[in-house]
Amino acid sequence: MHRERRRKNQVRYRMKQRELVKTLGEDVRNLESEIQDLEVRRHNASIGIPTHQTLWTIATEYFLLFRHGFRLPPQALQNAALNFLRVSMAPDVVNGCQRGVEAILAKWRLFSDYFNNVHVELERLEKSASPYSLTAITITTVTISKEAMRAVFPHLNSDGKGGAHGGNWSPLGQRLLNQRLVMRGSVRFDWDSASDSVVSIQSQSDMLTPLLRVLDSLEDVSLVFEGALVAPDCRLASFDW
């Protein structure tokens, strides 16, 4: 009888322990969620973004978040960026040929992996003919790194291997390596008043003009783009074609 009572007590004790662990786990998850929300609020407050967002404030916040690209950002910034996009963009927001807020982050990560020292300056915001559209005029500065050469211009080689696999770059490729390009461009934001969210982001930057300054030959610029995985308006093949 005593042994049976002890066994039942042990069973009840283990059940209480499991329930306690479950409750603690839920509390931890709730706390993590609250911390993330507070971090986003703190971040937005620090740059003066109001609680009620408009197309103008969303565009401003967008360029503040991505002014240095999105290469290996701190976890807090990743969380803030994803939260901001989910709150201000439609779930199926169009970005080039892709859809969804995750695609926006993936595109910024890829662009930042391809090019070094990314800096995006918001020069000004312009009203469009439609009250539901806004155009941002930008200046994007990047360095053509080895990673960019391998990923975007692998055809600029002299031995058939394309420096991507340890081969040698052609004289044209060597002239591009480590060059700093300053590209003027624009980003159009389209707004849906019914859902109070951005439904489309379309961007372009003029890569042709700074390349022409570097190479001083339209023929050479044409050869650069002929087999490149980026277009003259800076659209990446893997995302925008």
Automatic annotation (TrEMBL):
Keywords: Coiled coil. Residues 14-48 form a coiled coil. It comes from the Eukaryota. This is BZIP transcription factor 1.
